[in-house]
Amino acid sequence: MSLLTRPHRGSAPEPAEPPADGRSTGEPSTAEPGGTGDGRRSWWRRIASGLLTAVAALVVLTALVAPDQLLSVTPEALVRLPAEGIFGAAVLLVLPSRIRRIVAILGGIGLGLLTIDRIIDAGFYTVLARPFDLVLDWGLFSDGLNFVRDSGGQAAVVGAFAGSILLALAVLALTTFSVVRLTRILVWRTPVSAPAVAVLAIAWISCAALGAQLLPGVPIASRGAASMVHGRALRVQAGFRDAQKFAKEASVDKFADTPGSDLLTALKGKDVMVTFVESYGRSALSDPAMAAEVAPVLDAGTKSLGAAGYQSRSGFLTSPTAGGGSWLAHSTLLSGLWINNQQRYRNLLASNRLTLNRAFTKANWRTVAVMPGTSKAWPEGSFYDEKAVYPAKDLGYRGPAMTLHTMPDQYTLAQFERLEHGKPGHPPLMGEIPLTSSHTPWAPVPTMIPWDKVGDGSVYGPIARNAEQASSVWTSPAKIRKAYAHSVAYTMSALISYVQKYGDDKLVLIVLGDHQPAPIVTGDHASRDVPISIITKDQSVLDHISGWKWQSGLHPSPTAPVWRMNTFRDRFLTAFAK
Q1: Is there a contact between 263 and 577 (Cβ–Cβ < 8 Å)?
Q2: Which residues share a beta bridge with 366?
Q3: What is the CATH number of the domain that holds 271?
Q4: 233: helix, coil or strand?
Q5: Range of the domain at 194
Q6: 353 shares its domain with 500
Q7: Are residues 231 and 269 in the same domain?
Q8: Per-residue model confidence as pLDDT tens digits over 396-436
Q9: Each residue's pLDDT tens digit, 7-44
Q10: Is the peptide bond before 428 cis (omega within 30 degrees of 0)?
Q11: Considering just the CA atoms, what is the radius of gyration of the chain in Å?
Q12: HEC secondary structure over 260-282
């Protein structure tokens, strides 16, 4: 007889629990250790069985109602009535025994897949502040494995891959076992379970009608699993349509056919540096604890640069990403298109879009990219039409691995000076430089040293050893936020110092954040705004952007203008075409 069927009339007296050995009660039962021959279990078996049932119930409840963001997972968030669980129990009670078992197994597998999806979503929310996209995000897993390989070698990749597979199988096995076990109990105790299901249904309807909540925004009457599946289906549909939508957006480019002689005429002879500061977001200025370290650096930098004859203007841009995916922000700013997923990024690289880099090349600038966070070749350089690309291996760094397992930002800027900007008689330059010292895990963070002491980077050995390490930083959110703010302050200090040391009348420095840091720093629901500043000695450069209404100095106030990041290219090309 199926484990999910009730005993026939005339069978042995119904025990307190279904038989643990899997036999139906219509079969003879032998005595078990510590028990009697009538099939009753010993007390310890009853306790173990009860605990196992409780665990199964907790697994199913958690799978149905748990939030998909780690910061929202609290005991209170689990005290909810899941509509899907109540409905599923009612269906299982009325199904024939053979079909019931199949439905229970399929339901357990489905619940396992939903749980795996929640786990992946939790990871994406933690790192990228958004859920996983079933259509567009698969390429990010290979990027993640590459990061693991760069950090811990091939063995770490094998371990991470094997661990992920084992975890997925364990989740599927656990949810399937839990649903099957609860179904057996449910059917075995139909005289009790059927009224209980009815009471829970009435309770759910009442809580839904009254809007009852234990936590603000978290109703007791839950239908989160169904909403999650529905939302996922909508995102899948949107993902399949996104390629067509992107192609339509990319087909519009008012500068595509502009002759090089008409591009960037107001910047002729200037050296333009576009520097992306990793994870430099609005929260670094708006959160009091973090602003306490970052704001003084910006304010002091504004003052010291002003004394040296430099002026600056600042505002905000809204990034297409948060927490990670820096290349999406870089390509958005440079292409003038909204690049918020890998599919758009790949399609952009396959196009002939006029990026800012290409516009400078077309107007006879020497375009270069200094890529300290890129450990291998950077094929994107050909798309951007860079005349020279300097990945990490070509920057000659002989010091210790710092944040992101690469070099300090001061060293990167020193190499740009040595390789390009400091060469006598160099042609006008456009340099793209993504800086990395403010990348997670925000430790160890270097300190500023005299520029003539940078050398090959070996000087950073003692600095790295004496700096706070990631193992210490990542013990509390407060320490993580402090380390993040410290890293941003360091990078901005390096840029300000670079301008003071190597700047001249021809330098135009554009410095901006690529995206906000992860939610562990910003908290949930933070904006995606990042600061952006332009620094120059030439008043005419600032006159060309006077219509932007950006604020004076390096420290934009909360009321500074905010644009979407993809609008920058057109505004920039328009402003400097006069």
Answers
A1: yes
A2: 429
A3: 3.40.720.10
A4: helix
A5: 43-238
A6: yes
A7: no
A8: 999 999 987 799 999 999 999 999 999 999 999 999 999 99
A9: 443 343 444 445 544 444 333 333 444 444 455 557 88
A10: no
A11: 30
A12: HHHCCHHHCCCEEEEEEECCCCC
